[in-house]
Design brief:
Elements lengths: L14 H28 L5 H9 L18 H14 L1 H21 L2 H12 L5 E4 L9 H4 L3 E5 L2 E12 L6 E8 L5 E7 L5 E5 L11 E12 L10 H36 L1 E2 L2 E2 L4 H29 L5 H26 L10 H13 L4 H13 L6
Pfam families: Acyl-CoA_dh_1 (PF00441), Acyl-CoA_dh_M (PF02770), Acyl-CoA_dh_N (PF02771)
Family: Belongs to the acyl-CoA dehydrogenase family.
Keywords: FAD, Flavoprotein, Oxidoreductase
Length: 390
């Protein structure tokens, strides 16, 4: 049991899924953790991780018939896997989540059966890597109604023009799911753009202070020609896209929990070992206060996310459910990483102690997949019946 799992939530998983979670924990500890700090400092994604993930067999679990597990994993397992990976490093967890979640789920949910069979097996095996391109240089929270990237039908193909920003994995991805507004009907549609397509140019974003291992890109699309066969056949408007975002937003909340767990466990371990005034600082009341408040945030957030997973598994999952989880858990995450860094004192800003990485990466998780304000308005509308959107 994890130190942070005070109520033994992990025991809710059936034995076969718990074995997968433990396998992921060991994989992250032995294969990923040794690579993290060096590459975080350099701001580079270690490409050897792709091969290591390929051997782990962890990709494709949510998709029946495509992953090593073959049967679709429960939402509780996939959520706990996101937590477990983020507990080691948020950047690596995001690389995996973009590929295994956003990209694969877009194809699984929005593609035809032929498209699923064409792309998902290689993605589940991690022979091909995916990315998801929605956010734009001038469009974040308003991208639903203000998407500037366009698609124009030209015979048996589509011509894409525009730009995307903050696109994880895009510098090396084989398949990038690009969202664009159809000039004919003004509805958003999805396209799988394959690496090397003329006019598709991803440029790595430099100078980030969070998620430094993730290779986010700014993409320009200039006359990118995509065959109709690469248009996701079940995506006809942004309403269909919202179905995808609803699921992935819950995954980000699980990532926020992972950041809390990772930072708390580091702080607890440090407090037990660090001595001041002749004894471990874990014996000081004010340090215990920070640790207990952190554990309370973790335990409350974990319970919320378990029920969120049950709603997903039962098919009664709504936008406001994932929005409340994302807004609440990320706010609690901000508190925990600050308290954890505080326990480290001056050592808390040194990368070698890891907590500084969690502190920085938390800011990215707090902002993406819908800001706290946007998610608050989604929940506010649901509970009052009144829209407060501008």
């Amino acid at each position: 049991m994890l130190t942070a799992d005070f109520y033994d939530y992990e025991a809710l998983l059936p034995e076969d899924e718990r074995e997968i979670l433990v396998r992921a924990r060991e994989f992250m500890r032995t294969e990923v953790k040794p690579l993290v700090n060096e590459n975080w400092a350099k701001g580079e994604f270690p490409k050897e991780l792709i091969g290591l993930f390929r051997e782990s067999g962890l990709a494709g679990l949510p998709y029946e018939g495509y992953g090593e597990h073959r049967g679709a994993a429960s939402h509780l397992l996939t959520g706990m896997l996101a937590m477990e990976m983020t507990r080691t490093d948020a950047s690596v967890a995001t690389f995996f989540g973009v590929h295994n979640g956003l990209a694969m789920y877009s194809i699984h949910s929005g593609g035809s059966q032929e498209q699923r069979d064409r792309w998902l097996p290689a993605m589940a095996a991690m022979d091909k890597i995916g990315a998801f391109a929605m956010t734009e240089p001038l469009g974040g929270s308003d991208v639903a109604g203000g998407m500037r990237t366009t698609a124009r039908r030209d015979g048996g193909a589509w011509i894409l023009n525009g730009a995307k920003k903050w696109i994880g994995n895009a510098t090396f991805a084989d398949y990038v799911v690009v969202w664009a507004r159809d000039l004919d009907d003004n509805h958003v549609k999805g396209f799988v753009v394959e690496r090397g397509t003329p006019g598709f140019t991803p440029v790595k974003i430099e100078g980030k202070t969070a998620f430094r291992i993730v290779e986010n890109a700014e993409i320009t699309l200039t006359g990118v020609r995509v065959p109709e066969a690469n248009r996701l056949q079940n995506i006809n408007s942004f309403r269909d896209v919202a179905e995808i975002l609803r699921a992935t937003r819950g995954g980000v909340a699980w990532q926020a929990l992972g950041v809390m767990v990772g930072a708390y466990e580091l702080a607890l371990d440090y407090a037990r070992q660090r001595e001041q005034f002749g004894r471990p600082i874990a014996g000081f009341q004010l340090v215990q206060d920070l640790l207990v408040k952190s554990l309370g945030n973790i335990t409350a957030s974990w319970g919320m996310l378990i029920q969120l997973a049950r709603l997903q598994d039962n098919g009664v999952f709504r936008d406001e459910h994932s929005s409340l989880a994302k807004a609440f858990v990320t706010a609690r995450m901000r508190e925990v990483v600050a308290w954890s860094r505080e326990i480290f004192g001056g050592n808390g800003i040194l990368l070698e102690h890891d907590v500084a990485r969690f502190f920085a990466d938390a800011e990215a998780i707090y902002s993406f997949e819908g800001t706290r304000e946007m998610n608050t308005l989604i929940v506010g509308k649901a509970i009052t019946g009144q829209s407060a959107f501008v």
